[in-house]
Amino acid sequence: MDFQYTAEQDELVRALRAFARKELAPRSSHWDRTGEFPHDAWRQMGELGVLGLRVPPAYGGTEGDLLTMGLAMEEIARGDFSCTYGIQLAGLAGEIIGKNGEEAIKQRWLPPTARGEAIVALALTEPGAGSDAANLACRAVRDGDHYVISGEKSGISLGMAAHAAVLFARTGAGGARGISAFLVPLDLPGVTRSPLRDMGSRSIARAVLSFDGVRVPASHRLGKEGSGFYQVMQGFDYNRILIALGCLGAAQVSLEETMTYVKERKAFGRMLAQFEGVSFPIAEAATQIDAARLLCHRGLWLADRGLPHTKESAMVKWWAPKLAVDVIHQCLLLHGHYGYTDEFPFEQRMRDVIGLEIGDGTAEVMKVIVARELMGRETRPY
Ligand SMILES: Cc1cc2nc3c(=O)[nH]c(=O)nc-3n(C[C@H](O)[C@H](O)[C@H](O)COP(=O)(O)OP(=O)(O)OC[C@H]3O[C@@H](n4cnc5c(N)ncnc54)[C@H](O)[C@@H]3O)c2cc1C
Questions:
Q1: What is the pLDDT of residues 223-241, one digit of tens each?
Q2: Reduced to 3 states, what is the DSSP secondary structure of residue 161?
Q3: What is the per-residue pLDDT across 240-264, written as a single tens digit (0 to 9) for each?
Q4: 355 ligand 1 Cβ < 6 A
Q5: How far apart are CA 71 and CA 14, in angstroms?
Q6: Whose Cα sits closest to atom 35 in ligand 1?
Q7: CB atoms within 10 A of CB 328
Q8: Pairwise CA distance, residues 333 & 278, whole Å
Q9: Cα(374)–Cα(2) distance, rounded to whole angstroms?
Q10: How far is CA 340 from CA 68, 168, 257, 332, 362, in A?
Q11: Protein residue whose Cα sits closest to atom 7 of ligand 1
Q12: DSSP state of 126
């Protein structure tokens, strides 16, 4: 076992930590309060190379290893949790379009996605199908050299800001085998968007996207008809670990800020850190963050070697967001009333991280997957 990062990974962590502290953290609460989409931060992340980590080199990316991507998620989350959506969604778009798109689609969309100039959302969830994601109602019907798409997608991160979406629609019979993926430019006639007022990650413009007879050239289908569900599920396995590391980054920076604070703040003639009621929760949080991070790294290590990692992915996807919410909550409390104000980042971080207890698969669904991996498919409830 080798717990040492490579020289390149060390350098990336150093550069991203400085970037997150100088460029993201000071603007994070402004983005939260105004709901302004951080376009310039996206371009800066593009310049730093973190939006092209799953884009093939021929299209402006680096197609790096997943552990490096996980390190990037954790570092960016230290500055602004919402910006981690840039890394994971540019990663999924890069992977799905890069592996399944026609040449013209790759050339049109991948280089600007890696530069942070084009924003590509992932549109799977529908008002009537979330956890039961293979039960999509959105349809794509072949009409000559086009498909005509009709349906609604809800809870779509980046939805108001995106230039295009990787959209999943039914082209065949019911179930997973009837689902195909498409690259849909969002300026086509028949597309409308409505913003959602979520409790956290307000800057990343989550939306409902409606498609009313939207005509998309058949060349925009990604891969074969019926392969869409498998494309997204393959990416979800490692993406869930990346999300977990983003959550741990928000928890880690909160804990570090709290350790500084409880050594400065005094009560009853002593520094707060001298009370065991203060130092023990900090020791417990540090232990649990470290353990969760190690499980994430093992999952990415497996993924980088093409080995099964579904179980590890589902384990950290239920655990890390919950752990992060608990740790940030504890950090908020250890700051007393100051922690409860929006002068400090804890309430925002809690709101942001709670979203990932749901997004990309709820804790309950993750536990169904872990149980299935441990005890066999016959234990699934459906
Ligand atoms: C922050 C955030 C970001 C998101 N970003 C995107 C995005 O970019 N693109 C996209 O397509 N979607 C996105 N979503 C949608 C997200 O993927 C869904 O919300 C999620 O899959 C859950 O689906 P649902 O909301 O329909 O809940 P439901 O599926 O209706 O679940 C409701 C409750 O029932 C429970 N439940 C359901 N089935 C079972 C079961 N078998 N066993 C036990 N409990 C069960 C769930 O755990 C949950 O508690 C996002 C959501 C959030 C919150």
A1: 999 999 888 888 889 999 9
A2: coil
A3: 999 999 999 999 999 999 999 999 9
A4: yes
A5: 11
A6: 364
A7: 29
A8: 10
A9: 27
A10: 34, 41, 15, 6, 27
A11: 156
A12: B
